[in-house]
Here is the input.
Amino acid sequence: MALAFDDFGRPFIILKEQQRKNRLRGLDAQKANISAGKAVARILRSSLGPKGMDKMLQSPDGEVTITNDGATILEQMDVDNQIAKLMVELSRSQDYEIGDGTTGVVVLAGALLEQAEALLDRGIHPIRIAEGYEMASRIAVEHLETIAYKFEFGATNIEPLVQPCMTTLSSKIVNRYKRSLAEIAVKAVLSVADLERRDVNLDLIKVEGKVGGKLEDTELVYGIVVDKDMSHPQMPKKIEDAKIAILTCPFEPPKPKTKHKVDIDTVEKFETLRKQEQKYFDDMVQKCKDVGATLVICQWGFDDEANHLLMHRNLPAVRWVGGVELELIAIATGGRIVPRFQELTPEKLGKAGLVREKSFGTTKDRMLYIEHCANSRAVTIFIRGGNKMIIEETKRSIHDALCVARNLIRNNSIVYGGGSAEISCSLAVDVAADKYPGVEQYAIRAFADALDAIPLALAENSGLQPIETLSAVKSQQVKENNPRCGIDCNDIGITDMREQGVFETLIGKRQQILLATQVVKMILKIDDVISPSDY
Amino acid sequence: MAVERILKDEASEEKGDRARMASFVGAMAISDLVKTTLGPKGMDKILQSTGRGRSVTVTNDGATILKSLPIDNPAAKVLVDISKVQDDEVGDGTTSVVVLAGELLREAEKLIAMKIHPMTIISGYRMASECARDALLNKVVDNKDDAEKFRSDLMKIAMTTLSSKILSQDKEHFGKLAVDAVMRLKGSTNLEAIQIIKKPGGSLRDSFLDEGFILDKKIGIGQPKRIENAKILVANTAMDTDKVKIYGARVRVDSMTRVAEIEAAEKEKMREKVNKIIAHGINCFVNRQLIYNFPEELFADAGILAIEHADFDGIERLALVTGGEIASTFDNPESVKLGHCKLIEEIMIGEDKLIHFSGVAMGQACTIVLRGASDHVLDEAERSLHDALCVLSQTVNDSRVLLGGGWPEIVMAKDVDELARKTPGKKSHAIEAFSRALQAIPTIIADNAGLDSAELISQLRAEHHKEGSTSGIDVISGTVGDMAVLGIAESFKVKQAILLSATEAAEMILRVDEIIKSAPRKREDRM
Here is the structure.
């Protein structure tokens, strides 16, 4: 009660303006939270797997997004409920950490909540359920390690990396082209990967898209593609063996930060100032020329005069290049970003074998390709597609595939997909449950049931009889002692996921189980929801 | 305990069949809207803007119609987007792509009513579109090596494109204009080099192609109206007051005499600049920015034709045609490349004076002057011509050509039907549906022309049963005719783009099983 009594029996109010707040307590609170969490999971459930459907989202400004990616769906969903926001967080953290499996993690959390609801109805204390889940998740993760399989790969043998990427892509709209996209993703990751440290900086991979053409025209450019063109229309469109000056200072007269005034009171001063100004431009261009640059890439704009001088001295230039792109160009060409003209030296120039401008379609869209760079550690994936939504969705799919490839480089263990890992864990957890005395046993068993939700959803989305299929696969796993049996989503008659070539990363799967358990524990522990009511 | 609302108040959510229905209805509404504009007997639409002036556009161009529609249905937006992309990428076929996507969805709806899973439909559509493309590739004609034939191909394509537009009466005239203009580009797709000037008055037939360059500007007063062997300096520089650009500089004086001195210095500076420009040995100066009276007078004194305020595109084109460079500094007269042309003169079109540059050094650019009864006619004529130019320039690069008049659709449909018969499983329904959707396009063309489509299409299909048939719908006589004889042709690239992006869009919409709309962002009322 928000109303309490002091020593003298006088009532006083703890929660201010209590009539304006909605308050849910105890079991009601848990039930409400669980139903909210389940509702979110239900939305994503139909997106799971290769036969999963997409969602169409309309933003407040009327922009349309069509996607299959769990994190994107939730992010754009305009969620208002607090618990639903937690689920959104959950999917986002999976996205940040792993990049893939954002749908699966939410579906799993939803299933865990559903099971918890049944347990609550039987009168089991929420904390006990939470603890049971915790134990169960530990068992499941340990079991995952035992069924994991190490994939050996090398710079030449990329097939083991391509396969899991294809699994990720197969649930997206781009799946007709998954083979090539997966190869592009793997090659991109390998070219920026530091195999010694087993680390990949995904920032070095730029994903650029342009509407038009078809998906098959998507390509991997060993270099940088910038959505800019030469500053002067008459500059050369193609430069070979370019030496690039990368500048972050504008081709304009200096603008000191401190406040100052230059007073002109005599004709002489006017004249000198004018001369000075002309000299500035001349000097700037001359400096670039002196160090031997054959291309200037600048973060800022050019004055018309400077622009012409550059053109006149045969020094092609690109202006208004974004900071991030500038850094990428610097990395790719091995150049240094120069903040002041005075600091330009020949060593600081970047080198590229070929810089060319390419135009697209019937409009005057042009892009700048910087290729054959000295240091090919930065690459660009250039996506083409029939419309804007396809391009955006392809970008997200490529991102997922890149993350999978990166995760494999970090840790080359894989588990089998198609729900086989979940089924196997479910069996293991179920067996282990009996060893635990106490109420937790129920929670652990519930956890095993919740794990079944993923293969169930997969089967359901693929148009199979969910319960029948799952029980058949389960019994097959036990009978043949083969953890690779999963749901045959593509209906080709093989349940062994190794033969189907469906792989997922171990860390991705492990993270899914851990994150889902954590969030569910958190939701279960809430027993009081106070929210301002709408009035 | 009821499920609490998860989404924000005004956000809405539609699921499963309802969502699918919403997108089908939206997409079909859009395709029905533009359907009637298809084909040589298609009708136009009047669009009125909600902005001030309620300006009116009369058009037949799919992309233009769709761009101006305020649309709320997300699936409809996808279709608008593919039409826009089609416009950017190949320039023509913007209506066909939407109609095809709409028809594909219409067929898909029937299949879904038969309880076929959307994913099955998608995989069927994919196989069918692959097969349709191969069918086209097999039949394609490439006359690249034969200049004469290639030109006639281009001419046919231009006329086919134009026949569905307002220019259809004069399609031969405009077809020739467009082909000439594109041939001058010599393979580049830079349509900017073709300038289109619209001048109301006269009739459409009075439109002409000019080999030189026409700038819609006036010559300064007191300057020569006609220059032979012109040397042109194209510039982008301030010719008003040349400000000191150093930041923080300001003029502070303490007496009137000083003001006069500074003013004199300023004038002196401008005079110097003008002298420098004159020192280039030019007799024509074209600037992108304003030229004030004072320098204009100086130019007039030196007998130089000065043209101010030519817009950016004009400058670029002028630089392109005359071969000069766009200059902004004038200290090295010897190394600045000047533009040349044989003759500059003032000409009159209707009531307006224009500046005409003829005998230009680089013959890559040209100007098309459109004449017509009203602004609306001119606008539509420009759009039509733009379509034709786009298609032609794309065809120059990819010279594969197909016949028109519903021929490609029937060819594709025939092969797709063949595939359906060979494919086991539920997919074959989807493949059949794809072929029906393809046949819908000639059906619509015939319907729009007021012909008996059912009769014509069945005749056409029977004709195509023979190997190597070239039959299509002859809308003019209302019968099945030989397209090769009638000279109706289309570019392969356009057809391919239509096929691929329509399938892609249909696939995308089919995959959706849930639509979530966010609450519209609140706009502040400006009133």
The mean pLDDT of chain B is 81. The longest strand of chain B covers residues 339-349.
